[in-house]
Write a structure and sequence with these properties.
DUF4434, disordered N terminus, four-stranded mixed β-sheet, alpha/beta, DUF4434 domain-containing protein, eight-stranded parallel β-sheet
């Protein structure tokens, strides 16, 4: 089923369920809103594109494999001037100059969106400037337009990529969480925000969100925002600079967009000597939740496998050697020697302490720590990353277990779309071809009508058989009994575990089998 995803999308342009086109999109192919290969991962980070038809193709491809959520990173609210701003001129003068008035600080913001007229509040100062293929905005952050001193924000954009994304996602019944403006970073400590500029950041954030409230008020896709500044989900003090940033910026969100959801995606680091154990997850979640300013929040814990900070393996593999793709990160040692625990350990620890008002999501990192020879992946920005496999992604879904209210993934481009060669499939193609393969996420003992057995939970289990392979014992194949469907599908089998580690895999009624057995005892 070579390049099946793009073949599916090509066919979808010609036949299928189509909704009326937006008049502005008449030059783009008709939309197809069918979900053709629904996979367990339902959200992705994407890059807004100024080209409307490119945006439509991307949204349709994500939607075709079950995606219903799109997230973007917020551009950096920066204190450094970028070379492209030299083309921003007002009346022949650089945009950073205000004749007759003092400019105290100039911030820059490089984005892919076009703001509405409401952003231009101060006549003669706030300006929209077109120069070649780029649009610039000059915005004053002064409280009053007549103030003698101004902090300016110079914005550069290549078009309305975010607006395109919102309109297309709305047409497909999807949700978009645009990234909040990202805080300036401390000199020498880029992992911390520079709080000398937090007041200016908050003033600009309020302007941007007020513009979103006006521009996107009729678009169903706009449901919330994403906090772009990263932190580790571990125990933190009230004086932690990132926690302080979250509290300040989320208060602005609550004021401008009451009731909207904030998505945060903190990372975990299970490496011994550098990271922290799963026991810190509960307090870490509480510290993040404490910044939500009364708003609903989704904490999408990064599972750590893509960066190599946390391994994905079964509980029976603690003493096994780390996966080959993790050796460049932690060395050729055992999982226990390298890490405090696996992804499932951290997710389970997080699930034990989800704060009120918070949903626990899992961000399955859809890439490898380093690229292998002949493999596509990310070339820039550094560090280089490689393309992973559908079976590896299945393992990450397994590790999320029953605990994740939603599984999302960083990131669609380039990791799900790149190809090693023009005639080889992308990861998205492989998902489209293998989406019906069962994924088991939990096994528990359960009696049914007085019979002892096990309940197996996961995706695409219906029909077929369950195959049990005890460690050191004979394999047993048992016809499953359909148990039901809630958020996950369930199947029951009259299998009595011996207490030894046992691997269970499924073959469903369509003849598709698990890519990786689930271990239990």
């Amino acid at each position: 089923m070579h390049r099946i995803l793009w073949l599916v999308v090509a066919v979808a342009f010609v036949v299928g369920l189509v909704i009326p086109d937006d008049p502005e999109l008449s030059e783009c192919p008709s939309r197809d809103t069918r979900v053709l290969a629904p996979y367990a991962v339902t959200g992705y980070w994407v890059i807004p594109r100024a080209d409307r038809c490119v945006t439509q193709r991307m949204v349709e491809a994500v939607h075709a494999i079950g995606g219903d959520t799109l997230i973007t990173f917020g551009p950096r609210f920066d204190t450094r001037a970028e070379p492209e701003f030299a083309d921003c001129l007002v009346d022949g003068r650089p945009c950073a100059e205000l004749p007759g008035q003092r400019v105290r600080q100039v911030y820059t913001y490089v984005t892919s969106e076009e703001f509405g007229q409401g952003m231009l509040r101060c006549p003669g100062i706030d300006r929209r400037v077109v120069s070649g293929e780029r649009v610039f905005y000059r915005l004053s952050l002064a409280v009053g337009c007549a103030d003698p001193v101004h902090d300016l924000v110079l914005v550069s954009t290549d078009g309305d990529g975010l607006g395109n994304l919102m309109r297309e996602a709305s047409a497909y019944g999807m949700t978009v969480f645009p990234g909040l403006p990202a805080a300036p970073q401390r000199e020498g400590k880029p992992w911390e925000p520079d709080h000398a500029h937090t007041a200016a950041l908050n003033a600009f954030t309020a302007r941007v969100l007020a513009d979103y409230r006006e521009r996107f008020r009729t678009l169903s896709a706009f449901r919330g925002v994403y906090q772009s500044f990263e932190l580790a989900v571990r125990a933190r003090s009230d004086q932690d600079p990132i926690v302080q940033l979250y509290a300040a910026q989320h208060a602005v969100v609550a004021a401008e967009l009451p009731g909207t959801k904030i998505v945060v995606s903190p990372y975990i680091d299970g490496r011994r000597g550098r990271g922290y154990p799963p026991s810190e997850m509960e307090e870490g979640l509480a510290d993040i939740a404490g910044t939500r300013a009364g708003l609903p929040m989704a904490i999408a814990v990064q599972d750590g496998r893509g960066t190599g900070k946390v391994p994905v393996h079964g509980a029976h593999e603690a003493d096994a050697k780390v996966a080959a793709r993790l050796v460049p990160v932690v060395g050729d040692v055992s999982n226990t020697q390298a890490y405090y625990g696996s992804t499932s350990d951290y997710v389970e620890a997080a699930a034990r302490g989800v704060p009120d008002g918070v949903e626990l999501w899992v961000n399955a990192e859809g890439f490898e720590p380093t690229p292998a020879a002949g493999e596509c992946g990310r070339v820039e920005p550094l560090p280089l990353r490689g393309r992973t496999t559908k079976s590896r992604l299945d393992q990450q879904v397994m590790a999320a277990g029953r605990h994740a209210a939603k599984i999302i993934s960083y990131g669609w481009e380039p990791f799900f779309t790149c190809q090693a060669r023009y005639d080889t499939p992308s990861l998205a193609d492989d998902i489209a071809a293998g989406w019906q393969q069962p994924i088991i996420v939990a096994v528990s003992r359960k009696e049914l009508n007085g019979r002892p057995g096990v309940l197996v939970e996961g995706y695409n289990l219906h029909g077929g058989t369950l195959r049990f392979a005890p460690l050191g014992g004979a394999e047993v194949v048992v016809p499953q009994e359909w148990y039901g469907r809630d958020r996950l599908e369930s199947a029951w089998a009259p299998y009595v575990p011996s207490g030894a580690w046992t691997g269970v895999s499924a073959t469903n009624g369509t003849g598709h089998s698990s890519t990786t057995p689930y271990a239990f005892r």
